[in-house]
Amino acid sequence: MRNARALAMSTVSRCTHDGAFSNIELSNSIDAAQLSEADKNLYASLVYTTLENLLTIDHFIDKVSNRKMADTDEQIKNILRIGTCQIMFMDKIPESAACDESVKLAYKSAKPYVNGVLRNMCRMKDELRKGLEKASLSVRFSVSEDICSLIKEQYPRDYIKILEGFSYRLPLCLRVNTLRTNSETVAAQTEGRLHAEISDCVTVNKNVAAVAKASGDDYFIQGVPSQFAIKLLGAKKGETVIDMCSCPGGKSFSTALEMENEGRIISADIHKNKLHLVEAMAEKLGITIIETMCADGRNENESLIGVADRVICDVPCSSLGVINSKQEIRYKNKESFERLPEIQYEILKNGGKYLKKGGSMIYSTCTFNKKENGEVVGRFLRENEGFKLTYERQFMMHTDKTEGFYVAKLTRI
């Protein structure tokens, strides 16, 4: 059986080299399931902390090594990353253990090199940390140059606070299944707290892994801003709702609960292979009013025109607002989300066509990029007559202590 450090090294490699998603890797690792509880925690901490600080870690290694990280082979590169993570960011692990265990992972000819780099790291720890004050924003906060530039340009007064906010540990948020239980019961079961402003929402700081695994009957995981957005939508019993980009289904489920499972929800998504997950989860929750549809939200569907009392446009986005839980997003480049505003606009435009007169829709993203948020809504209002903006809000990590999230409510008049 592989130990926690070897497993962490492999997972980091898959995330940085092969494009794997850290949350999926951590949740689905068969090897990790065989570890002791202590080693499971070490494994998760190593992966999470290494990915969170990747650019800073690489900067430290370059400072103490006679070989650039760019010229180092993949295996040794990730052994050094895991070792540096322990030395520089995990104070409870003895330096000797971090060095010795890392050397064990290296192939024979590389052991002296790994040992030398990490021993240098131990000797120069204080000097490296002090030198970080003069490093670029990208290195200091371990965020890509492109994302740093975007934040500094769009939020010139708050960019440091926003970058600092990426390291916040946010509580797990649960949406209570009110068809089967109530908030007080779920709060007691999970050692959680009732949210001060949003009904049917419980926040949990303890037993996060156990809570996540139990999700599916009495509650499911959904962030505070997403729950807020569905409350804002205001769907009522007996209405027809279209969810334009529904997978994995959370907003459809919350809407069904708001409607007390009476009415009709069309949960559409471009990914046909994911719709069965929506159906399976709805069955678990006891929701019977959801019908799934494979559809590309960018393409007009004549059968849906004028059908909906409410429309949900929770569109594909850059996901910059969920960096706290998906660390690999930190390293995106601008090319990966430059085309998104056009896609988002097309989905919103079709959502407007599906809305009845007097109906309302929400437009939402899990990002703080203004080009994907207010600018898309502004364009929609300019180019489509008969709509008005009735509410708009940007959630931010550093001010709201939630994931970054944008929501606007539009009404057809």
- Termini separation comes to 63 Å
Q: What is the number of domains?
A: 2
CATH topology of the largest domain: Rossmann fold
How many DSSP H or I helices?
Answer: 20
CATH superfamily of the largest domain: Vaccinia Virus protein VP39
Number of strands: 11
Q: What portion of residues is helical?
A: 40-55%
Strand order, sheet with most strands: 7-6-5-8-9-11-10
- Indicate the structural class: alpha/beta
Q: Major β-sheet, in short?
A: 7 strands, mixed
| Model regions low in confidence, pLDDT < 50 over at least 5 residues | none
Range of strand content: 15-25%
What is the rounded Rg?
23 Å
Shape: elongated
The CATH architecture of the largest domain would be 3-Layer(aba) Sandwich
Mean pLDDT score, rounded?
A: 93
What is the CATH level 1 assignment of the largest domain? Answer: Alpha Beta
Note down, in words, how this protein is organized.
- There is one protein chain.
- With 413 residues, the protein is of the alpha/beta class.
- The chain has two domains: 4-135, N-utilizing Substance Protein B Homolog, Chain A, CATH 1.10.940; 223-412, Vaccinia Virus protein VP39 (Rossmann fold, 3-Layer(aba) Sandwich).
- The chain contains 20 helices and eleven strands.
- The protein has helices spanning 4-17, 22-28, 30-33, 37-52, 54-64, 74-89, 95-105, 111-123, 125-131, 137-141, 145-154, 159-165, 183-190, 208-214, 224-233, 250-258, 275-285, 340-354, 374-383, 397-400; strands spanning 172-176, 193-194, 201-204, 219-221, 240-243, 264-269, 290-294, 308-314, 355-365, 387-395, 405-412.
- A seven-stranded mixed beta sheet has the order 7-6-5-8-9-11-10, sandwiched between helices. The chain has a four-stranded antiparallel beta sheet with strand order 2-3-1-4, with helices on one face.
- Helix 4 (37-52) packs across helix 6.
- The protein is elongated and about 70 Å long.
- The mean pLDDT is 93.
